[in-house]
Design a protein that fits this description.
Layout (H helix, E strand, L loop, with lengths): L3 E10 L18 E9 L4 E6 L3 H9 L11 H5 L7 H11 L8 H21 L3 H5 L6 E9 L4 H13 L4 E5 L7 H15 L4 E5 L6 H11 L4 E5 L7 H10 L4 E3 L5 H8 L7 E2 L3 H4 L1 H14 L3 E2 L7 H13 L6 E4 L4 H5 L1 E2 L3 E2 L2 E3 L9 E2 L1 H7 L3
Parallel strand pairs: 4-5, 4-11, 5-6, 6-7, 7-8, 8-9, 9-10
Antiparallel strand pairs: 1-2, 2-3, 4-14, 12-15, 13-14
């Protein structure tokens, strides 16, 4: 029996401020990153990055016991436990955070530990994570370049051309200049569609101003651009309105990246309307939770597209889920050249617009420990 000997929540500094325009025209994401490191008595280590507040995640992992097994740090819940009893381990973490967690950052911290433990189990078994989930249905997934809106139609054309030249057949533009002026939004999208042509998949991400009726009118006006989906045109904490919006328009509505735990996805899917469900593995509860969340969404007729934007480590985890999922799939692919997004993990391959599913044991990618040590500040 392989047991966990240590859990660390590291804080990494990418040394580039959020929103900084990089040399290649991309924008930097959050400067600081949360990285979970799980060690075992077998000498095998697992890693996972967590898309949350790094210092809060660290506090949740390291917290001292307040009430044994009900209000305690996640490190106390995990150290000494077997990596093979992953469902029991998840339940143990959940129970240890009953009084201060159950949703939000506690779920995020649990997610990171869960992902790292699955990575370890795969490495020990000599099998990729998708085998542990139930097997792969595909060896590659159509990737979409995930990036931000530029300020002008000319800049949008240039960005679109750069992704097409890299082989992408799908592109998602989000936030940035989006959602401020409906007329300008249409100009920006028109430039993208004209440059990309009719066969490239396009997606849009970002809140839209106004009430439910106003947002519906905007979406109806975007139908001519042939969008795969519009992501979170309303805030994620309005699941009823998002579902109502989806029922009222012909444009697919997507959401889910901010949700944690099965309960929040049950709430989201209580009413029909959301067509694309986007669990982020580093927030929703990890691989253990996705085994319940994905079938729940699929049974409601929704497309499941994991959200993955922090680094190629999270991209790799999402690829294993996409390999296992039935039906059509898309892989979010962060194109940012920010240091931690692009260098934390190595081993992913992009071929003709498809991300290849890693076949090595565990997550099938390698965390560069030199990069970790160079950027670690806590």
């Amino acid at each position: 029996m392989t047991v966990i000997t240590e859990v660390e929540a590291l804080v990494l500094d990418g040394q580039v401020e959020y929103g900084t325009r990089l040399d290649d025209g991309e924008m930097a994401g959050p400067r600081y990153s949360s990285l979970i490191k799980v060690s075992t008595d077998a000498g095998v280590t697992g890693y996972a990055d967590v898309d949350s507040h790094p210092w809060i995640v660290q506090a949740l992992v390291n917290a001292r016991t307040q009430i044994p097994e009900f209000c305690a740090g996640l490190r106390d819940a995990v150290v000494g436990q077997s990596v093979w009893n992953r469902s029991a381990l998840w339940e143990r973490m959940y129970r240890h955070s009953w009084y201060h967690g159950r949703r939000g950052p506690a779920l995020h911290a649990m997610s990171g530990i869960d992902l790292a433990v699955w990575d370890i189990a795969g490495r020990l078994a000599g099998r990729p994570v998708h085998d542990l989930l139930g097997g792969a249905r595909r060896d590659r997934v159509l990737a979409y370049a995930s990036t931000l809106f530029r300020e002008t139609p000319e800049e949008m054309r240039k960005a679109t051309r750069s992704y097409l030249d890299r082989g992408f057949r799908a592109i998602k533009f989000g936030w940035g200049a989006w959602g401020i002026n409906p007329a300008r939004d249409r100009e920006l999208l028109a430039a993208v569609r004209d440059e990309a042509g009719p066969d490239v998949h396009l997606m849009v991400d970002g809140h839209l101003p106004g009430d439910l009726t106003a947002v519906r009118r905007v979406l109806d006006g975007l139908a001519e651009f042939g969008l795969q989906w519009v992501e979170e045109p309303l805030p994620a904490d309005r699941p009823g309105d998002l579902a109502a919006l989806g029922r009222a328009t012909n444009v697919r509505v997507a959401t889910g990246e901010q949700l944690g735990g099965v309960g929040e996805f049950e709430e989201l899917l209580a009413a029909e309307g959301v067509s694309v469900v986007q669990p982020d593995l580093s927030r929703c509860g990890g691989f253990t939770a996705i085994q319940t969340i994905a079938p729940l969404a699929l049974a409601r007729g929704a497309l499941v597209v994991p959200h993955a934007w922090t680094s190629q480590l999270l991209t790799a985890a999402s690829l294993h889920v996409n390999a296992w999922l039935p039906g059509p799939v898309f892989q979010e692919y962060n194109v940012s050249s920010a240091p931690l997004a692009s260098t934390l993990a190595t081993g992913l391959q992009l071929v003709d617009g498809y991300a290849l599913v890693p076949t090595g044991p565990g997550l099938g990618v390698t965390v560069d420990e030199n990069v970790v040590e160079a950027h670690r500040i806590a």
